Amino acid sequence: MTITSHQIRMASRPVGLPTAENFSIEDHPVRQPANGEVLLKTLYLSLDPYMRGRMSAAKSYAAPMEVGDIMIGATVSEVVESRAEGFEPGDVVLGYGGWQTYSTESTGHLRKLDPEQAPVTTSLGVLGMPGFTAYSGLLSIGKPQEGETLAVAAATGPVGSAVGQIAKLKGLRTIGIAGGPEKVEQLKEFGFDVALDHREDDLAGRLEEAAPEGIDVYFENVGGPVWDAVLPRLNTFARVPVCGLAANYNLTEAPAGPDRSPALMGAILAGSLTLRGFIQAEFVPTMFEDFIRDMGQWVREGKIAYREDITEGLDNAPEVFAGMLQGHNFGKTIIKI
């Protein structure tokens, strides 16, 4: 029996914010699995900011998608047919089927999930790539020390919220920065010591009041005006894991104004600052097992809370994706297929 997969592909490269015209919705037969492969039915699709970068032809840490490709993305799927040892129909796995209802994948990169241990959607968020991004970046680059002060932007998102809560477990004072009063209230529920709305006036002044003794660790998810407000508050020897620059993702030209890189380099030199960009995959060989153990335990014990923003229907993915890039999501963005 031939199974047809409902797919969303990149029809053209976006200029600025992605629109409906940048996507095509198509149906194609699914390839039958060969030896070592499984046929999967997608249950949940993860939407993440990195996908915007992969839609661009600009040089980055990973090869860009090509026009006509199925949109990439992590998926939670059910095994429909298996030609691989250790995988049976009905198994639930974390894979990378992308924006489609069925996929055929090699089992080499699949991870079996146990729905009895945690909701399977957590493998796309707090117990998956976003959670590991927070864990690895904070602990390996941020090097948090008890009694220090940490700030993080996009702090209600799956990465930022985990960063803040891990930092609290390590004994730090935490400042969460997010957009809008509802998200500020959520920051309080996540246990941040201070919650700031970057959409209100004078973020720099309010940040000075919140961190009178400065900031020791700033987990960078956003860039833009938030970074401008944070930089003067960084203490000597502060560490800045650079995870994302959401304020820049949809820019179509260089930001207006003078070249501020000399001032930035001067601040780095004068403050002995550490700024390090990273991609979570580099830490998988050395830290992923520890992450699964630690974060799994923290979630089970209620020490780490999380929030998911789930929309039903694959055809809604382009609109939800564009909304996420504008900060409309509230928690981990997931499409239920």
Describe this structure in words.
By secondary structure, the protein is an alpha/beta fold. It is built from 9 helices and 15 strands. The strands form 3 sheets. Strands 3, 4, 5, 6, 7, 14 and 15 form a 7-stranded mixed β-sheet that branches. α6 links the parallel β11 and β12 (234-242). α2 packs across α3, α2 packs across α8 and α5 packs across α6 (224-230). The model has no long low-confidence stretch (mean pLDDT 93).
Largest sheet: 7 strands, mixed
Question: What value does the Rg take, in angstroms?
Answer: 21 Å
**What structural category arises from helix and sheet content?**
alpha/beta
Mass-distribution shape: globular
Low-confidence stretches are: none
- Helix-strand topology string: EEEHEEEEHEHEHEHEHEHEHEHE
Give the count of helical stretches: 9
In whole angstroms, how far apart are the ends? 21 Å
Give a brief outline of the structure.
With 337 residues, this protein is of the alpha/beta class. The chain has nine helices and 15 strands.
Provide the fold topology.
Layout: E1 4-10, E2 23-29, E3 37-46, H1 50-54, E4 75-82, E5 92-95, E6 102-106, E7 111-112, H2 129-142, E8 149-153, H3 158-169, E9 173-178, H4 181-189, E10 194-197, H5 203-210, E11 215-219, H6 224-230, E12 234-242, H7 261-271, E13 274-277, H8 284-300, E14 308-312, H9 317-325, E15 332-336
Parallel strand pairs: 8-9, 8-11, 9-10, 11-12, 12-13, 14-15
Antiparallel strand pairs: 1-2, 3-4, 3-6, 3-15, 4-5, 5-7
Helix pairs in contact: 2-3, 2-8, 5-6
